[in-house]
Amino acid sequence: MKIIFIGPPGSGKGTQAKRIAAEHGIPHISTGDILREAVAEGTELGKKAAPTMASGGLVPDDLMIGIINDRLGKADARKGFILDGFPRTVVQAEKLDGIVGNGTEKLRVVQLLVPDEAIVKRIALRRSCPQCGAIYHLENQPPANDNVCDKDGAELVARPDDTEAAVRKRLEAFHRQTMPVTSFYKTKSWLREVDGTGPVDQVFERIQRSLV
Ligand code: AP5
């Protein structure tokens, strides 16, 4: 199964993609996670991407396409994948067609619909594990023990791009650069729009139904 998740920042792409990946036995490929790892390791890619990410802008297409080309070439992605955060521009979507080739008719594109007001509340209280990437929300999905990851005990952190100014810019980038990607997939009839509001379990059920 080849799945793409599209949605504004904080719409639950990461939360749901991890569950869907586990359910279907396919790798969860998050371009945001790949970039954050590169930043943490101080690689050339990380150094190039860090300032853009911190400000809430989009990293250049050529860098992102190179990352995805390499990642989808790995053996575990042959049986399928879930892409979280890619493609984010029409150029990326067109290049992805070229990378996945003739199998694209099997691509399922899920757009999570969440209003901007809800996004701001979700992101303000998001915390994540710097070691395993688990995602929490201090009210909706709190860890069992204060500020500590349930899985590995690491101290949870807020993301550096979750400042109010960066979130505003990420939302603006979503509406201006990523919404045209949904039109691109709508014309191919691959787009499934899913209500991303309400409890996490309910959203998961809606996504599962949309994938049939
Ligand atoms: P990326 O990491 O992809 O960030 P994003 O798209 O802004 O999305 P988020 O990770 O913020 O949110 P999410 O939708 O995964 O929500 P989550 O599940 O965490 O990208 C970061 C940056 O990298 C970009 O800004 C850009 O600079 C760069 N980048 C990445 N890909 C790129 C590309 N292809 N091209 C160019 N640049 C690229 O949930 C959010 C919170 O809500 C959590 O606290 C969660 O617990 C909570 N929550 C989840 N579901 C629910 C629910 N149903 N009800 C209540 N709360 C919920």
Describe this structure in words.
The chain is of the alpha/beta class. The chain has one domain (2-114, 165-210): P-loop containing nucleotide triphosphate hydrolases (Rossmann fold). Helix content is 48%, strand content 14%. The protein has eight helices and seven strands, in the order E-H-E-H-H-H-E-H-E-H-E-E-H-E-H. The strands form two sheets. It has a five-stranded parallel β-sheet, with helices on both faces. Strand 5 (126-128) and strand 6 form a beta hairpin. It is globular. The termini are close together.
What sequence of helices (H) and strands (E) makes up the elements? EHEHHHEHEHEEHEH
Helical proportion, percent range: 40-55%
The share of residues in extended strands comes to: 5-15%
> What is the CATH superfamily?
P-loop containing nucleotide triphosphate hydrolases
Numbering strands along the chain, what is their spatial order in the largest sheet? 2-3-1-4-7
* Overall outline: globular
Average residue-wise pLDDT: 94
Distance between the termini: 10 Å
**Which runs of at least 5 residues are low in confidence (pLDDT < 50)?**
none
How many domains in all? 1
Count of DSSP H/I helices = 8
Attribute tags:
212 residues; two-stranded antiparallel sheet; 5-stranded parallel sheet; binds BIS(adenosine)-5'-pentaphosphate; globular
Summarize the structure.
With 212 residues, the protein is α/β, with parallel strands linked by helices. Helices cover 48% and strands 14% of the residues.
